[in-house]
Amino acid sequence: MKGELKIYNSLTRQKEVFVPQNPPHVGMYVCGPTVYSDAHLGNCRTFMFFDVVYRYLKHLGYKVRYVRNITDVGHLEDELAGEGEDKIAKKARLEQLEPMEIVQNYTNGFRHVMRQMNTIPPSIEPTATGHILEQIELVQKIIDAGYGYESNGSIYFDVLKYAEKYPYGELSGKVLEDLQNNSRELSGQGEKRNPVDFSIWKKASPEHIMRWNSPWGEGFPGWHLECTVMSTKYLGETFDIHGGGMDLQFPHHECEIAQSVAGIGCVPVKYWIHTNMLTVEGKKMSKSLGNSFLPHELFAGSHPSLEQGYSPMTVRFFFLQAHYRSTVDFSNEALKAAEKGYKRLMNAQSLLSKLNYTNVGTVDVELDNQINEACENCYKHIDDDFNTAMTLADLFELSNKINAFSNKQLPLASISEATFNRLQTTFHAFVTDVLGLKDEASDNSNDGLMDGVMDLLLNIRKEARANKDWATSDKIRDELKEIGLLVKDSKEGSSWSVL
Amino acid sequence: MKGELKIYNSLTRQKEVFVPQNPPHVGMYVCGPTVYSDAHLGNCRTFMFFDVVYRYLKHLGYKVRYVRNITDVGHLEDELAGEGEDKIAKKARLEQLEPMEIVQNYTNGFRHVMRQMNTIPPSIEPTATGHILEQIELVQKIIDAGYGYESNGSIYFDVLKYAEKYPYGELSGKVLEDLQNNSRELSGQGEKRNPVDFSIWKKASPEHIMRWNSPWGEGFPGWHLECTVMSTKYLGETFDIHGGGMDLQFPHHECEIAQSVAGIGCVPVKYWIHTNMLTVEGKKMSKSLGNSFLPHELFAGSHPSLEQGYSPMTVRFFFLQAHYRSTVDFSNEALKAAEKGYKRLMNAQSLLSKLNYTNVGTVDVELDNQINEACENCYKHIDDDFNTAMTLADLFELSNKINAFSNKQLPLASISEATFNRLQTTFHAFVTDVLGLKDEASDNSNDGLMDGVMDLLLNIRKEARANKDWATSDKIRDELKEIGLLVKDSKEGSSWSVL
């Protein structure tokens, strides 16, 4: 174990030293995607971040059981009120498919994007439909404990009764009175004793496709229930870390706490971690603003608001440049800068692997100290609530030194062998193991070649333009377009992207 | 719809014309892997074959719902007797992991191999643990119908009682009397009324980790039950095609039939398809003979009995060269021959895409007929119980013609334009869409583009040479060499390859 890892706990609203319940084991649960549409970039950021948490905990020597679920039922259109149509069943109805075909299709797509982003698969990836029996059992326990009531075939959680004994709203900072005043009156609300109550089991209407038998008739579990069931089934009644996007704090995570306390008799989670949202040029990503693009569109540059494609590793680097509790703002400028930064880092890593240390000179103590300090800072900063932005800055400081060693501005022998070894170990550990950045250029042989060939081709075109040989210049642009490659000319020169 | 597809139905032991119940819909269920160890090559062959079935049915215009399950519980060590320890729970105990971690790990590995083999993911990939509730319900139905009995907390299927009314052994050709005589006496057999009975619900012993509540106490479903539940849930009580390896005919598929007939009241499947086994140099693949290698070992050549690595597409081609009802025998000679054959086919496909038809000559009727006949034969042979071996032979006949057109031995204009179009369409459809062979040499997205870009670049160089602009010509050659690409000049023009 290196330093002392501190995590900002959303529950206590302060940074706390991370002390697992049962070291060296760590249990971590992250709310996964609802698979009724393509994975969106906010999800990607969240899962990429928890991938770094997973990687860093493993790097520290912990044995981590990382559970990330797939929500394949029970996510209603109007979350807050717990009403509306099941999102997956609705998509199935619209596309005339079996709901599980929708689920399979988008789950495959989600896993594909996760692979592209180089995230490590979780230890267990359980599904909501895979745990119906356990969910029915928990509903029964909540009823038995007096916090659940049946109404017209559905079971609701009695929030007011719960709040008499336990704090409700502690995680999200919501005040029950405000919630009651702000509750909208919606169809089916009449079934609830109080508008703030939430469904833990919903009666299936006759046209509802996804349905299971239960002691209360045919229905399906409420969305919040699955996470309580799956997290505690695989990680124990109280576990170390629970994560998700900030938008899940309320009602989802608040309800999870209530369900665990009421039905299992335990506060479920020690450290709650929430990631912040994405914006595009300062605005919320939304379809109506036309600034919403999907991962594959971002990678290919196939959206009007994108000037080019940004590779999965560029996007990963881009996310890492912000602290997870800050918003991340997409812009072409920021993404281009990230692309450069990512390539600089990969270049430094490649140069580092080629350096051969020979112990011949006098050690420059100041330089030696600088490198050791930057190595220490990598740990110090990631230990400070996973500050990947600062860790990247440390890695860039090390990159500058590596470049200087490589082009002989600095003699490599002016640092001690121990320091050189530490530089190699730390740099590699952070770039590859912890931050999960891989070299795309050497990833598949031909991509690197493609870049080289295109550079050559664009150079020939540049010369043709310099010679006012517009025929050749246009021919190259036009034929590339025919192949499916777009050449863009700008003041800085020409670039290309896949159409 | 092209011709008339005939399928050898294991149940009737004859080839039958394929008539789906509810065209254009086709339901197909294939028994998937038990995920307690790495996918083995026998599985790969089976799933690769059903991938061809899936692809061909889609090519014919059917809307196929293809369900392939993941067995993540209930597969006991001694299948025949239905006794022993659950394979996944045992592995978990040995590796000190949560069973679902084992499941996740080997499921990920299985999916990876399936991607390498270029199989299309099934429409739905349901898990046994995801359908416990439905399995409990089916057990209850079987009990209610009088064909299931409880014994010491487990539920058994009463085979003798079933056989009084329905045929048992029809699929596998087993005779009940022989089965009774051959039954071994094993621990726990005492619970059964008769040794031929099989468990549909097993009581969990105290140390058993994977367990669920049921009306009969804590336990887990019998292995055969999951497939009955999942196939009928997603495909209906009677569906078109059920497939699997030949080793599953008995007891697994025989028991599925009995469960459906007894519990649901329907014969479940119209066409049963079973794939044959693998051998290595004429012997059964087995660990004790030291001739057992895993897919990744075969691809990498990292096993003593392999002289080299054979790429996933070579292996796919190799499997396709045998009819699915024949055994496939691995040997280095046969695999090397497959590698050559695969490359020949890919080469022909590449040449075909470069042929430009111009309608200038007189049609050579005999040649024209030969090509049309070979195109027809592709359909004729795959329609004949998926005879991929014969279809490959047809594609090779077409390849010979393509080669002759390409090197001008035969003038392309000696066939009609309609025939040329048919050649292109049929060749591409069978190689790529139906047999699922892809060009590994140009595997990455950029590789298709790479060909185009290199064509353009070599054209520019050709022009430069024509203009005696040796500086540009040499520059292109030299810079490509620096990138790692070799340009070769010959009488026919220039070509390139990776250094």
Description:
The structure is a homodimer of 499-residue chains. Chain A is an alpha/beta fold. Chain A has 3 domains: 7-275, Rossmann fold (3-Layer(aba) Sandwich); 293-434, Isoleucyl-tRNA Synthetase, Domain 1, CATH 1.10.730; 447-498, no CATH class. Chain A has 16 helices and 17 strands. Chain A has helices at 41-59, 87-95, 99-116, 132-144, 159-165, 176-182, 223-235, 249-264, 295-300, 312-320, 332-354, 365-383, 388-406, 417-434, 445-466, 470-483, and strands at residues 6-9, 14-17, 25-30, 63-68, 76-78, 83-86, 148-151, 154-157, 198-203, 219-221, 239-245, 269-275, 278-280, 283-284, 328-330, 485-490, 493-498. In chain A, the strands form 6 sheets. Chain A has a 4-stranded parallel β-sheet, with helices on both faces. In chain A, strands 7-8-9-10 form a 4-stranded antiparallel β-sheet. Chain A has a 3-stranded mixed β-sheet with strand order 14-13-15. In chain A, helix 11 (332-354) crosses helix 14 (417-434) and helix 12 (365-383) packs parallel to helix 14. The first copy, chain A, is globular and about 80 Å long. The mean pLDDT of chain A is 91. Chains A and B meet through helix 3, helix 4, helix 15 and helix 16 of A and helix 3, helix 4, helix 15 and helix 16 of B.
Number of strands of chain A: 17
Mean pLDDT of chain A: 91
CATH architecture of the largest domain in chain A: 3-Layer(aba) Sandwich
| Span of the ends, CA to CA of chain A | 47 Å
Any low-confidence stretches of chain A, pLDDT <50, length ≥5? none
* CATH domain topology of the largest domain in chain A: Rossmann fold
